[in-house]
Design brief:
- This protein has helices at 18-29, 32-37, 49-64, 86-100, 117-136, 152-164, 191-201, 217-232, 236-252, 263-274, and strands at residues 2-5, 39-44, 71-79, 104-108, 143-147, 178-179, 182-183, 204-207, 281-285, 291-295, 300-304.
- It is an alpha/beta fold.
- The protein folds into two domains: 2-9 and 16-252, Rossmann fold, CATH 3.40.50; 263-324, no CATH class.
- Helix 1 (18-29) packs across helix 3.
């Protein structure tokens, strides 16, 4: 573990502060009932810069109560038992929580080394945070939510990782501002906003070397892919955020849904019946009025909206259906000038 303290920097920037960004996003995700009754917010803190900044920003939001919303904060750190430095890293979060008068809870989980370590650690961490949230809600009125420190750069990286692995539109609706009990108040903040907050308030944080380990896909995307794309367009993260927001809205409205059982099989069976000379794609109508397209080369099912005559494909062109499987007649060449 390496520790760092941001030097206290000057104030006076025209950009919204991280506290303001967190407050806006949190208020946008709360329901009217949650705003009226107040809620308990369990903040996941690892000791890294993102979660340290999140805890500090939310503590400042809760202290102001300028919006009439009562927030009761509880901070929670999860020790996966994988790194000896974890205890000292969590201590940084506990010290910051004590400074703000926020209760601190440590949860310990057992994650064995092996394949998919990061994914398994993430699942164990989420389960531990849920358990801590349930315990924190005992005897308290209002809802209990879990806040994590995912930010806009995380969202862009996750989007690119999913895209590289062949995710469809439903799977690309990554890291929404709210998923049930889970809220992400920093989802519209950039990593630079977080580091500015760290510097401005002189916060101490820990750096996890595994975040730079090229053996992990996220580290490779962060170090190699994102810089190349930012060189093409510095607004990459902003563009990805806009796309994710659109996909999240479509998913929320039921337009994008997980592939229904049998939809892909029906489309694939129809393609097989037409033979190798048939179309590369097939669309199957679904009961909700949308369509499942099966892409023969990619072997992928995608759920898409559209009218029955021309349901759009991934490439925004009409996929071929059984009724239009035959190639269109060709026009004879024109003779003469």
């Amino acid at each position: 573990m390496s520790r760092a303290r941001g030097p206290r920097g000057p104030r006076g920037s025209h950009a919204p502060s991280l506290t303001t960004l967190a407050r806006r996003e949190l208020l946008a995700t709360l329901t009217p009932d949650e705003k009226r009754a107040g809620c308990t917010l369990l903040v996941g803190v690892s000791g890294g810069p993102d979660s340290i900044a999140l805890l500090d920003a939310l503590a400042r939001v809760a202290a102001r109560e300028r919006d009439g919303v009562r927030l009761a904060l509880v901070a929670c750190g999860v020790d996966h038992g994988l790194r000896a430095e974890a205890e000292a890293e969590l201590r940084l979060g506990a010290e910051l929580a004590a400074r703000h008068g926020v209760p601190w809870v440590t949860k310990r989980v057992a994650v064995r080394p092996g394949p998919n370590l990061h994914a398994r650690a993430r699942e164990a961490r989420h389960a531990a945070l849920l358990e801590a949230a349930h315990e924190a809600s005992a005897g308290r009125a209002g809802a209990t939510l879990v806040a994590t420190a995912h930010h806009a750069d995380d969202r862009a990286e996750t989007f690119l990782m999913r895209l590289a692995r062949g995710a469809g539109l439903y799977g690309l609706a990554v890291l929404p501002p709210r998923e049930g009990h889970l809220v992400r108040p920093l989802v519209r903040a950039r990593k630079a906003d977080i580091m500015t907050h760290i510097t401005r308030h002189g916060l101490t944080y820990a750096s996890d070397p595994s975040n730079l380990d090229p053996r992990y896909l996220r580290a490779k995307v962060r170090a190699e892919v994102v810089p190349q794309l930012l060189a093409l367009d510095p607004r990459l993260v902003e563009h990805v955020t806009a796309v994710c927001d659109e996909l999240v809205a479509l998913r929320r409205d039921g337009v994008l849904t997980p592939s229904p059982a049998g939809a892909g099989r029906r489309a694939r069976a129809e393609l097989d019946r037409l033979g190798p000379s048939g179309p590369r794609k097939m669309a199957v109508a679904l009961p909700n009025g949308h369509f499942a397209t099966y892409d023969r080369p990619a072997g992928r099912v995608v759920i898409l909206p559209g009218p029955s005559d021309t349901p759009p494909s991934r490439e925004r062109t009409p996929p071929v259906t059984a009724s239009s499987a035959a190639p269109p007649p060709t026009r004879p060449p024109r003779k003469g000038p």
